[in-house]
Amino acid sequence: MKAILIDTTSSKLGVALIDGKSVFSSLQEVGKSGHSTVLMPVIDTLLKENKVSIDDIDTIGVVVGPGSFTGIRIGVATATALAFSLNAKRIAITAFELLAYNREKAIVAVDAGHGNLYVANCENGEVKSTDFIDGEEAKKVDRSQFDFDPSGDYVETLVAIASKKVQNKDYVSVFEPYYMRKSQAEREKGL
């Protein structure tokens, strides 16, 4: 497998390049609006530094959400364009899968901005139920009950999930963003 994996759902940018059994990655803080300017140069650098041709990529994976609305859009749009142009297989990963991986039982949480949280109850890495906790309610809950980070190394976890999906032929035909609620603009307009 030669794959590119992308995560733009948080203030961090995660990109992994898989070349057979070798994994090369970049994980960096880019803030709320840095993904669009950094994502393609990071992919290009990983390919060039590791002497992998973009034309050899056969699989594209992306974390489809939940998380930052803009980040999800950037990641999904980029992954879609790459998969289409390369005729590559597509793997969709949720942020909840990433956080729940290798956890027997967990309540995982993703920052939803403005103090809000996206939350999932998980068993054996699988999401059993999800919820949205608004900022006012989130102030009242004990944040220590939530897991906000993967149980192991971020890149290793992302690669393990993608590899398992490839092994199970768990591909998607279209990357669908996973939004748990409408964007702020849509809510303000009453859409």
What does this structure look like?
With 191 residues, the protein is an alpha/beta fold. It has a domain at 2-96 and 152-189: ATPase, nucleotide binding domain (Nucleotidyltransferase, domain 5). The protein is built from six helices and eight strands; from the N terminus they run βββαβαβαβββααα. The protein has a five-stranded mixed beta sheet with strand order 3-2-1-4-5, sandwiched between helices. A three-stranded antiparallel beta sheet has the order 6-7-8. The model has no long low-confidence stretch (mean pLDDT 93).
- Total number of helices: 6
Helix-strand category: alpha/beta
User: What is the helix fraction of residues, given as a range?
Assistant: 25-40%
Number of strands: 8
Distance between the termini: 42 Å
- Strand proportion, as a percent range, falls in 25-35%
Order of helices and strands: EEEHEHEHEEEHHH
| Rg, Å, rounded | 16 Å
CATH H-level superfamily title of the domain at 2-96 and 152-189: ATPase, nucleotide binding domain
Average pLDDT confidence is 93
Give unreliable regions as ranges: none
Class of the domain at 2-96 and 152-189 in CATH? Alpha Beta
Short description:
The protein has a domain at 2-96 and 152-189: 2-Layer Sandwich (Nucleotidyltransferase, domain 5).
Q: How is the secondary structure organized here?
A:
Elements (H helix, E strand, L loop, with lengths): L1 E6 L4 E8 L2 E8 L5 H15 L9 E5 L5 H18 L2 E5 L1 H6 L4 E7 L5 E7 L2 E8 L1 H6 L13 H14 L16 H6 L2
Parallel strand pairs: 1-4, 4-5
Antiparallel strand pairs: 1-2, 2-3, 6-7, 7-8
Helix pairs in contact: 1-2
